[in-house]
């Protein structure tokens, strides 16, 4: 039996009953005029009367409330179907402006006019996303830090002050509470198939959103407050998301047609979810990139959940959890251990963890990554301006999973000229947004900055030599000797043939070497806490080095211009020439630190997995280097310009680093 045939629904029996049956039990026909006034406003009191409460503690009785609101929702749905688009706009559009995405809600109205269940589910996902963002903006009228979770936002005192507690209770019946319909989570986590989401609930949420707009307008007039909308998140550095480069990525109609064939045959796809996959690929063809990704992300989750539950022998986890338990979501599926402390078998099934785990961690979880699912589902992204570049990567990644879990008789499709390059790219993927990966990026950028020092304008050497006290001294020679000595100790940890005997410092401490080290493959999955704490320290050191470099470049350029224009006083001229002498020595010192940082970064996982080590003593070493770089930032700042003190500080720091290096306390030594 194909894996995708093993389940016909992902809703547990109680959840299925609540969503698909409970709101249909009362057969009454509800008069829309009971909740809609003559001037088109929502009669909130009539709506809230349908919310039932438990006698024991006066908390919401969700079962009775859903049953009672069922006919009301149906009445709203019929009402909307009776309106033309123009009539809806005249009557409701102005009440939707507070959401800052009126067009999305107008699209939702359009979907309600048709019977396509997939479009209704998509509309509901977009509606809940935009509504959550808008409610967060309202929250900030009264509070500071907006809650991240929708359930906490809806339960907040701040929203109850603006809209009223009874109104918020109505919303919580539909979204935000695991005891209610919980439509937002059920859809965004891929539990509901298209036919399991009644259109009348989508219609009711659209109706309630307009009603919230009416209440908000009254509140703003009374309090003289102004509602401000937080800016959308904009994806920057899109090239960093370019997992499947353009030369391999050709998502034309031919590729998408092959993808449609794979969807129908891949065991990664649950048959009841097939309409979502087809709709996602269709949306991509139509350049509706946000829609395509919104539809795909929950399907990637349910596909992986299907594998997760099979490989870990927990088929019950395929279904929605009850209010007393957790959903099986991306976070758990990507974890190293299950909740019973057993090892998660999903990475084993994926064979090459980088193909899925690292990609998903990068695009969904890592704090410095795009966090696409979070930002889409919480309304942080402008849906109309969603970049194709991001959609390209999600669609291409989805295709690789479809291929990976297709039958052997699909060999011809897997080997197709437009598919095979995607599989090759996926198989060699390396994390880009794990803290270690960001550290690598930092040190390379810092090295590029230091490399610019050699191109800085400078005064002729003979003019430097004529100034008394600036000639080569014993302290400088000692410093160069220590750099050479520490560099020699690093050679055993560096690639072969990277050092020239004629010039060990300048042949080792190079951008080319650093690039080679950063290209080294490191598995970043499941980094233990000591690894992350060490990397935090290494990144702080790298950031300080970069700031020093930028300050040196800025000061050197300004001082040279002043030198040429003869606007420097005598003391300033001497200080400028001291700076020129100092940065000749400071350059190899900073390059040495960057190489050491990178070697530590590529060793940290191996050391922490290998044997326990004196973690606290190692952190002391890092704090020593960090303190040195922080002091460098101070001394080399335009306000201080203390170059003699800079070299004195550098000499002391190098002596300590050499001493620690001799004792082999650094990770690169411990890893060997």
TrEMBL record:
Signal peptide: none annotated. Residues 131-211 form the DUF4209 domain. Coiled coil: none annotated. InterPro entries: DUF4209, ERMARD. It comes from the Eukaryota. This is EMARD protein. It comes from Tachuris rubrigastra.
């Amino acid at each position: 039996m194909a894996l995708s045939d093993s389940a016909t629904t992902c809703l547990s029996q109680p959840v299925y009953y609540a969503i698909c049956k409970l709101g249909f039990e009362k057969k009454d026909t509800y008069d829309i005029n009971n909740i809609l006034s003559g001037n088109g406003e929502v009669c909130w009191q009539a709506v809230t009367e349908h919310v039932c409460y438990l006698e024991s503690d006066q908390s919401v009785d969700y079962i009775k409330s859903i049953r009672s609101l069922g006919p009301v929702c149906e009445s709203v749905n019929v009402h909307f179907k009776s309106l033309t688009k123009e009539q809806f706009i005249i009557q409701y559009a102005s009440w939707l402006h507070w959401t800052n995405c009126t067009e999305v809600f107008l699209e939702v109205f359009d979907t309600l006019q048709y019977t396509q269940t997939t479009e209704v589910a998509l509309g509901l996902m977009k509606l809940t996303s935009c509504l959550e963002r808008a409610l967060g903006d309202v929250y900030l009228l009264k509070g500071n830090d907006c809650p991240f979770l929708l359930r906490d936002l809806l339960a907040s005192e701040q929203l109850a002050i603006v809209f009223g507690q009874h109104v918020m209770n109505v919303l919580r019946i539909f979204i935000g509470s695991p005891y209610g319909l919980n439509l937002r989570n059920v859809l965004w986590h891929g539990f509901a198939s298209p036919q399991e989401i009644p259109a009348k609930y989508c219609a009711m949420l659209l109706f309630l959103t307009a009603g919230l707009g009416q209440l908000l307008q009254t509140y703003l007039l009374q309090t003289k407050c102004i509602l401000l909308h937080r800016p959308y998140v904009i994806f920057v550095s899109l090239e960093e998301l370019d997992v499947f480069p353009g030369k391999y990525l050709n998502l034309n109609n031919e590729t998408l047609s092959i993808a449609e064939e794979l969807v129908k045959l891949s065991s990664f796809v649950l048959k009841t979810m097939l309409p979502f996959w087809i709709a996602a690929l269709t949306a991509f063809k139509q350049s509706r990139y946000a829609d395509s990704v919104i539809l795909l992300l929950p399907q990637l989750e349910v596909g992986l959940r299907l594998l997760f539950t099979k490989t870990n022998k927990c088929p019950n986890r395929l279904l929605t959890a009850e209010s007393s338990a957790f959903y099986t979501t991306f976070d758990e599926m990507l974890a190293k251990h299950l909740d019973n402390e057993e090892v998660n078998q999903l990475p084993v099934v994926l064979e090459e963890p980088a193909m899925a785990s690292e990609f998903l961690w990068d695009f969904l979880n890592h704090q410095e990554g795009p966090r696409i699912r979070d930002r889409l589902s919480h309304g942080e992204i402008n849906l109309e301006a969603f970049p194709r570049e991001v959609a390209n990567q999600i669609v291409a990644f989805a295709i690789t999973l479809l291929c990976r879990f297709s039958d052997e008789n699909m060999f011809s499709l897997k080997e197709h000229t437009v598919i095979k390059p995607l599989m090759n790219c996926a198989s060699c993927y390396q994390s880009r947004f794990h803290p270690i990966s960001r550290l690598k990026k930092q040190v390379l950028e810092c090295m590029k900055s230091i490399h610019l020092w050699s191109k800085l304008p400078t005064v002729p050497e003979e003019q430097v030599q004529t100034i008394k006290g600036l000639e080569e001294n014993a302290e400088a020679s000692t410093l160069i000797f220590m750099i050479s000595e520490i560099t020699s100790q690093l050679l055993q940890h560096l690639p072969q043939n990277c050092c020239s005997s004629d010039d060990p410092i300048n042949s080792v401490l190079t951008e080319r070497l650093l690039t080679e080290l950063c290209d080294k493959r490191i598995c970043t999955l499941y980094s233990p806490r000591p690894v992350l704490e060490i990397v935090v320290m290494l990144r702080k050191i790298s950031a300080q080095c970069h700031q020093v470099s930028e300050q040196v470049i800025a000061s050197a350029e300004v001082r040279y211009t002043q030198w040429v224009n003869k606007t420097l006083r005598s003391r300033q001229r001497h200080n400028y020439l001291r700076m020129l002498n100092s940065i000749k020595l400071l350059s190899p010192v900073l390059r040495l630190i960057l190489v050491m940082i990178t070697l530590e970064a590529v060793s940290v996982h191996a050391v922490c997995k290998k044997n326990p080590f004196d973690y606290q003593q190692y952190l002391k070493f890092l704090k020593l280097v960090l303190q040195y770089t922080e002091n460098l930032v101070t001394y080399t700042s335009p306000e201080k310009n203390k170059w003699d003190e800079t070299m004195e500080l550098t000499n002391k720091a190098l002596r300590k680093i050499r001493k620690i290096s001799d004792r082999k306390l650094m990770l690169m030594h411990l890893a060997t």
